[in-house]
Amino acid sequence: MAYVITDKCVACGTCLPVCPVEAISEGDIYHIDPDTCIECGSCAEVCPSEAIIPGSMVLTSRLQSKEMPRDLICLANDQSVVNGQSVKLRLTEPMWVGNALIPRNTPLVGVARLQGERLEVAITSIEANGSVYDVDSRYRFSVGL
Fold this sequence. Notes:
Layout: E1 3-5, E2 24-25, E3 31-32, H1 42-46, E4 52-54, H2 55-62, E5 73-75, E6 86-91, E7 95-97, E8 100-102, E9 107-115, E10 118-128, E11 131-134, E12 140-144
Antiparallel strand pairs: 1-4, 2-3, 5-6, 6-9, 7-8, 9-10, 10-11, 10-12
């Protein structure tokens, strides 16, 4: 899985000369092309701000407890939520899933579970870039009603 440059990047340029395949591009925050990256880790080893991490860690760090952060998703529109039925959600910020960058406002589908005055939604799929990505159903979020 390709490496990712996080918002800790200070644009110092230390990583540019060590990338053997020139996968890193300059900007306010540098970017690694996931299709070019060969996952050697040279860039991460020299980064003074520790801003470069394996792509798999991006999603994992946001979901360590298997609980989707509430600020990452919201209901897609006005809808009736019925226990055991599908619920449409959307991302409020971009997110990496494997090597794919899933854009903001991407639709997600989950299954609702009502528990008293709490709504729990188990995320089942993400629809992005013309593909449907299945999601481990352990990823869920809950809110008070």
